[in-house]
Specification:
Blueprint: H1 2-5, E1 11-14, E2 18-21, E3 31-33, E4 36-43, E5 46-53, E6 59-65, E7 78-81, E8 84-90, E9 99-105, E10 111-114, E11 118-120, E12 125-126, E13 133-140, E14 146-151, E15 157-162, E16 171-174, E17 177-179, E18 187-192, E19 195-201, H2 202-205, E20 211-222, E21 227-234, E22 237-239, E23 242-246, E24 251-256, E25 262-267, E26 269-270, E27 286-287, E28 298-304, E29 306-310, E30 313-318, E31 323-329, E32 336-343, H3 346-349, E33 357-359, E34 362-367, E35 370-375, E36 381-383, E37 389-399, E38 411-422, H4 436-441, E39 443-445, E40 448-452, E41 457-461
Parallel strand pairs: 7-27
Antiparallel strand pairs: 1-2, 2-41, 3-4, 4-5, 5-6, 7-8, 8-9, 9-10, 11-13, 12-13, 13-14, 14-15, 16-17, 17-18, 18-19, 20-21, 21-24, 22-23, 23-29, 24-25, 26-28, 28-31, 29-30, 31-32, 33-34, 34-35, 35-36, 37-38, 39-40, 40-41
Amino acid sequence: MLAASFAGLGWSAAPARGWSRTNLGAVSQPAPAGGKFVLYARQNDSLEVVALNADDGSTAWVAPASPSDVTPGVVATLAVRAGTVFYLETYGTPTYGRARVVARDAASGNVVWQSAVGSFETWPEICPDQTSAVCVNGKIGGVGWGQLRFSATTGNVLGVVQMGTAAYPGRELTPDLFDPGVRGPEQLLAVSKGKLSWRRNLSVIFTLSHATTDGGWDFDRFGRLDLFVGSVGKRPQVKHGKYTVRLGPRMTAGFSTATGKVKWRTPGLYSCGQPLPCPGRSQAGYSSASTLPSPSVGIRILETGTVSGRMNGGTPKVSHDASATIQGFNPVTGKTEWSFKAGRNVFLLADKGSAPETGAATVVLKTPSGYVALDLRTGKAKHLATRSHAWCLKTILYHLTHTIYYGGRGEYVGQSGLYPCTLNTRRAALPAKLPSLVRLIGASTGGMTAWTDTGAVHARPSSG
């Protein structure tokens, strides 16, 4: 009876088998908090935080949310701790980016605390070096741009590290590592427990010419190793509305979180998350104390050739001489542990998204001899039968008409929808038993595992 009464609203439930919601406009994977599944959704041209009851998928509560001044290409991420969910909520007219950091009890939907009104450049996250605190980059109450730390339980401001200017607030590269926006020369700085740890010129760490975060970046914080590990991009050549990027050489560096001192440098572009998931790194779509562990094996890609395209969009073109070699390396030393020649793999070279996965650290790659499953822990590859299936990830894009970032078109990048697929990424039937991979990318609570597809949220019994 209950399922039938909500069928017209895109909701169906069969508790023994699970449930699906197709009417939510979900743009993130769910987070488990207070016995609920909590996620971001787009409804009526606005961003919302929605909590779903785990047993049947019905809506427990809904609250307005805001991207504030977060760059549209940075995916929306919730932070959760001890049954509380943290996010940004619109204050006043959405167009101006004014917002508050809000802590809400996930079980009841009641507000626990909310910050003063301000503008924010990052989504709230659990501070990696202080898990009792929530970190966000922004400004409130006349305080200069910087990293703000709030007590997760009371909302009291624990510290402010000023780093940017009113004109350019800087950007977070990974938790506790920032580009403060200084140019001539470009700089990096690090924060620890609410205080500035160090500030260095980027060229001291990355010694390649034209290295800059303006060309992109990928970093991880290896807290137990006292290391930041990652890469920055290079400025593309732009002429007559067309860009060209030389794929090589690139550099991966490991440097101290405490001092900024470089421990090692190697060729290659650090690649953890997209298109390849580093073994040991969380694939969950939310921030919590349980999502903080760093990769056990680092992944980098050595590339040659060029990628070009139009500045106004379209499909990138990969040169015929381009090639990619994937390497797994020891994060402590940077030394290569295994190597796999992927050849002219357009998917990797043009950064077309996340590779299909068959396991927590196993991805599907297309080679001249067919599809292979590459174990990113060991570098071992095995050929797959054409009838084999995997799980695909596709980026969710959404529009917020009334929230235009610096005069843009209001298009934002959500998290990736997860769905079962064939090796050529066509949709496949849902398997009878969920693999552990779904629990790692989605969320589990109350005996149910839920995940966001590109057009729905599904849940099945975790033991099924």
